[in-house]
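Newbie here. two chains, one complex. Structure please?
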Amino acid sequence: MLKRLEGRFEQLFEHSLRETVIPFNHIFKRHLIPLCKILKWFEKHGTTRDHSEILKTMTKICTKKLIK
Amino acid sequence: MMSTVRVSQETRLKLHKLAGLLQTLKGKSVSLDEVIKYLLSQNEKDVKVLPYADCRLNFECDKKVFLQFLKEVFGYFKVKEVFLDFSTVLSPISENQRKNIDARLMEILRKLHISFEINGDGIEVRSEIKVEKLIKFLRIIKESFDWSNEIPPMTVESKEIKIIINDYGCLHIDAIKELSSTERRDLAKIFLKIHGFGEDTIRYALEELPKDFVIVIRSIKDFGLLLEVNGKVVLLEEVK
């Protein structure tokens, strides 16, 4: 699930960086909802270590994308 | 300022005809650049995902050619087998609605001998399959479901590349090793070819293609395909 979270979060960034108009529905259904569902899954099944990994993963992507 | 737009003689005539019509309506002279801008503005009224490709390897394919694009990309990287990964937990629908979809999806997976697990939350697929089987599977689920609303995002991975399928037609290629600019251009070439551009047009477009490219294809009713590179219209081609 952590790998999937990484993929979803990264794709959300990729889509928001585009200069062309993307329908909000696409972002909502294909990126935001799956991302929320992963977080919900971790809330239900994840360990304390998973939670710390989520933060690390998301922060790593934020740093990478915002520096670009 | 718009750059020079390459068009065929026939398209040029159509543009002149439309310019004449707009001139009559506006009561002042209208340039061909303005005609193209008018066509673009008409196109943008109906916001949808347009065929798109960029140098970061994000692609949005027309739904009709998506599977062909996937096949050609796998062929280009000589990939014969992939690791398919997805979980229906990530489908953009409620848990109750998903139960029925999961049952139908399981039937398809069983028929195609694609292994999966059922956990309390949904179906987990982590299976190694041949590319032909993957294409068949994607075709069947495209025909059987309302993909954007019922199917979760997926990833398919091989030694060379990982493809994140965000939606039907929408994907990102994550190359395990950094791709050269030639390889990126080759992928752009495949993208243009499957969307119906002729060889001469592709050669012309690739000659002009900058290293950091963003390609957008707009279908203009009664005219054909309009190719935009980094925000500039480079050509308008009739598709036979």
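Moderator note: Chain A has one domain: 2-67. The first helix of chain A runs from residue 2 to 16. Thread marked as resolved.
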